[in-house]
Write a structure and sequence with these properties.
seven-stranded parallel β-sheet; 11 helices; alpha/beta; homodimer; Rossmann fold
Chain lengths: 335, 335
């Protein structure tokens, strides 16, 4: 692949927390290709997407250190001599928090603060990229949603990711750490878990199709099914966005939406998958309770990162096809 | 005093976390007066304002249970049979977080979530009033600051208070608990700590005056000293606002600014104190670093709570005079 970062990553020491997970492993593979020395920290938390098969193509080129990022004594050893830290480790379940919010607080808030502390104390010159979520905005009060949109996260996972972002910004503004903040939309593509919708609905849809199960579209007879506006971003585009931001000095201290400003919807995703796999689609009427929790239409304003020279490049059809092909070959490793 | 709540609080079982502190103790005294049965939970955390002298007038009328609110096993015993919980317990230092954010996360986030869990599990019919801070807004993007203003908290204390508010809202929206949310401005008056500006600058100014130390006004020769716009609210008004909100069914699930929409500034406060005490005032030039952290002018839009029938009643002069008189009589207990 072309190195659009002009050698920036060649010889760089890079730490990826959550590097066995979906986005982290795709990032690790790209960084190895760009000539970085990559260390992965991951504890294969059950509610994250950690999977050794994700790094199969680079297993001899990366160092994997199994570790809970709340283990400060150990983590401080690992942040030394790193040029860049991509922080992707997180408790990812959106429903776990309905029963117990402590895993979100522990992994997402305390874990992030522990990592920030280690960077500050052991390697104050490091650059850290924090990956938050579009869920931090909650319901869209206006569309597209720009970075100044109020943040009213609804679920426990999103509340914790939002708090961790505030702490990362705090480490930049008050403690002088070089931090870049991001809020990711619905990222899909190879190497995601497909067992449940917790790890991205688009990926889950592909998994259902490959298991010959119908793809469910939520809705009701008035408004239709699967037609809420959403944006979907192919993981390679997401990786490119993270790499671009980490390479730009002017991104430090700022927050960027990483998503797709051409909105689509779940129906479109399901239909593309159905075209490739002949999967059937079923309509599911929202329960009263589920409808109350539905956050409505969403797509982001990405002009801020566009101005730095990034834009989504992989069309939905191509991205879905790649995902289907990858999972057809490797499905045993993902369910 | 007149019971403007028409007997609502008579016979009610009320739990006040942080009830030995500044606002909590003033609230407890008023509730005893209104005929409530009051239990206080407090652990006299060093960085809170807990002080047994605060409840001297009602010491035979309230039950004090010393407890860290993260102690769920014990706390769950105490929320049973309560009609209302006022949650005021918090780590209050704004500067501690510069060195260590864990006390904010532990006391303010995990403490609040533990209390919410106990209420949900043991007493789902209880009404809980959460007390947040105007610091949750960060810099004012517009004035006055209404409740829909984006929340960009700057310091660790404020970040943690903001996160706890999101968790309290989560318990309302997703888990069905009756929660009322508040964001308090600069509250001053009797029963506050006066050892440091951590517990409110207005109170600290009074303390300095009574120790015959000059009152410092920050600024520089260009813009003047002590002239940033701020609102100050006398503690009795704050207590009235909390009591009104807890008595109104329509307040459940909503967030209210509790402050003063007639802005003043630190110079005005210092001059009133100086009039009563003959304290001197000194001008202090901001350090470059301090100036960067200055959040600028702030005063809240309080029309939302005004619409429920509350407004600030105690003028700044009267409030300051009361504070000075209280501390003249009782200063041994406050430093």
């Amino acid at each position: 692949m072309v190195d659009q970062y002009n050698g920036y990553y060649k010889g760089k020491n890079v730490l990826i927390t959550g590097g066995l997970g979906f986005i982290g492993s795709n990032l690790a593979i790209r960084l190895v290709d760009l000539g970085s020395s990559v260390m992965i920290v991951d504890n294969k938390l059950e509610t994250s997407g950690g999977n050794e098969f994700n790094i199969e193509p680079i297993k001899h080129d990366v160092h994997v250190n199994y570790l809970n990022i709340c283990d400060k004594t150990s983590l401080r050893q690992l942040v030394r001599n790193k040029h860049i830290v991509f922080h992707l480790a997180a408790q990812m379940s959106h429903t776990l928090g309905l029963k117990d919010q402590k895993p979100d607080i522990e992994n997402n808030i305390i874990g992030t603060v522990t990592l920030l502390e280690c960077c500050k104390e052991e390697n104050n010159g490091v650059k850290l990229v924090y990956t938050g979520s579009r869920g931090q905005y909650g319901e869209a009060l206006r569309l597209p949603v720009d970075e100044d949109h109020p943040r009213n996260p609804i679920g426990s996972h999103e509340i914790s990711k939002n708090d961790a972002e505030d702490y990362a910004r705090f480490y930049h503004r008050r403690l002088g750490l070089d931090v870049v903040l991001t809020r990711l939309s619905n990222v899909y593509g190879p190497r995601s878990q497909i067992k449940s919708p917790e790890f991205g609905v688009a990926n889950w849809f592909v998994g259902l199709a490959l298991r010959y199960e119908p793809i469910p579209l939520m809705g009701d007879s008035c408004e239709g099914y699967g037609i809420k506006k959403r944006d979907f971003l192919y993981v390679d585009d997401c990786v490119d966005a993270l790499l671009l931001l980490a390479s730009k000095k002017e991104a430090i201290g700022h927050v960027y939406n990483i998503g797709n400003d051409e909105p689509s919807n779940f129906r479109a995703v399901a239909e593309i998958i159905s075209d490739y796999t002949r999967a059937s689609i079923k309509h599911v009427t929202w329960s009263k309770e589920r409808k109350l929790l539905e956050p409505g239409d969403f797509y982001p304003d990405i002009s801020k990162i566009r101005n730095l020279g990034w834009s989504p490049r992989v069309p939905l059809e191509e991205g879905i096809r790649n995902t289907v092909e990858f999972l057809k070959l490797n499905k045993d490793h993902y369910w």
